[in-house]
Every structure is written in C-alpha cells, then in structure tokens.
Amino acid sequence: MINTNKKANEDKQAHWDYIFSAKEDAELGWSEDDCSQTLSFLKHTAISANSTLFLAGAGTSKLVDELIKTDANLIVNDISAKALETLSQRLNTTQCQYLHYDLGLPFNNNVNKSIDENFAVDVWIDRAVLHFLLTEEQINNYFDNLKSTVKCGGYVLLAEFSNTGATHCAGLAVHQYSVDEMQTRLGDKFELIDSKEYIFVNPFQQERPYIYALFQRIS
Ligand SMILES: C[S@@+](CC[C@H](N)C(=O)[O-])C[C@H]1O[C@@H](n2cnc3c(N)ncnc32)[C@H](O)[C@@H]1O
C-alpha cells in the first residue's frame, strides 16, 4: 500500500529543494536584505548568549546572519535540505544546529529520528512558513510542536501573509492569517505582546501584506 502522507511529504521537500537549487536569493519572492521589521519585534524578547532560538523554516534568510551576532544558540530548521546546505555553507559556523523537518508533522513521530523531542526554546521565529500548511492536521501539528517546545516565559513571532495578502507564494496556495486566528490556535497560555500589519515589497517590487504578531508564553 502506498503511504500517501510519506509521498506528500517527499513532494513538498522536492518542491522546495527545486526552488533553492534553481534560484538565487534575489529571485525568491520572499527574499529580503533588510530584516529590520523582524528584528524590531525581536527587541522585546531580550535575546542573549544564553537564549535558544528556533527558526521555523529559515530558507536562506539573512535573518540568520543577524541572529548569529547575538551569540544565541540557533536551531535552524527547514523542510528543504538544499536550503540548509546553502545556508550552512554561507554561515560556516558551529553556532547553528540544523534540523531538516516538516513542521506539519508531529515532533514525536518516527519520520526523523535525529530530532531531540525534548528540546526547549526561548524564541520561536517564523516568517512565511506556517502559512504554507493547509490542512487542519498539518496546522494542528505545527501548533502542538510549537507549544511543546517554547519555554514558559518564552516568545513566538509569527509573520504570515495577512487576510489582505496574496493567496499564493512559491507556486503554492497559502492560508492567510489574522492575529485573532493566531491567538485562537495558540490558546490562552500565550499572550499577545505586539502586532503590526506590514507591507513587504518583494524583489519584483510587488507588495506583499504580512501580519506580524509576537506572543509570550505566560503559563
Ligand atoms: C517563503 S520561504 C521563507 C524563508 C525564510 N523564513 C525567509 O523569511 O526568508 C518558506 C520557507 O519555509 C520552508 N518550509 C515550507 N514548508 C515547510 C514545512 N512544512 N516545514 C518546514 N519548513 C517549511 C521552505 O523550504 C522555505 O525555506
């Protein structure tokens, strides 16, 4: 019998691997040289050398280069092995731990045995990753992974296409977000600290409305 979940997972990985193999950063519709919008939200989180940060789908983002300057421990995740390879070659540092994982799957499954299910993070950072998860099962798995990983007192930054944003990216449909939906899915253990609608102008000069929201885990 064909395992359709496994097949869908392999298809998604292949899709992203193809993009990161075929295109330069400047050709990626989400690429930004200036990460100050994300960094301005992270100022609330008091990142230090003792912090552990989780990048949900880092791609080849220059945000990672900026976060390395904080001396924090970085867990850099992506579904694309090609993106991780490109990023790790560029960064050439031992400060990052690389994780190759589909966040639409539960951390406690057996797909990737290299993951330490008990890791805990101070800040979970997601720019333009969550919105690619489309089924309730994938979205619930993502939020369960997040909730089991972010420490009490820790933070979650979600930056996703907003309800007024684009419906597709990278050739894939997206699930648009509001702050209310993020809060509902996070539940009452997470408190909203700040949020902002932000129009990102991509490398092709197209406007891409995002919603940025920072939450703190309070219990
Ligand atoms: C639009 S790009 C954003 C990359 C990066 N966060 C940035 O801001 O430049 C989406 C990224 O999420 C990754 N991704 C997509 N689906 C994922 C999933 N289910 N689990 C983990 N990463 C995923 C892709 O490989 C890609 O690197």
Give an account of the 3D structure:
This protein has 219 residues and is α/β, with parallel strands linked by helices. The protein has a single domain, classed as 3-Layer(aba) Sandwich (Rossmann fold). 29% of the residues lie in helices and 28% in strands. It is built from six helices and nine strands; from the N terminus they run H-H-E-H-E-H-E-E-H-E-E-E-H-E-E. The strands form two sheets. A seven-stranded mixed beta sheet has the order 3-2-1-4-5-9-8. Strands 6-7 form a two-stranded antiparallel ribbon. The chain is globular and about 45 Å long. The protein starts with a helix and ends with a strand. The mean pLDDT is 93. Bound molecules: S-adenosylmethionine. S-adenosylmethionine binds at residues 16, 30, 57-59, 61, 77-80, 83, 102-104, 127-129, 132-133, 169-170.
Supply the key terms.
single chain; 219 residues; alpha/beta; Rossmann fold; binds S-adenosylmethionine
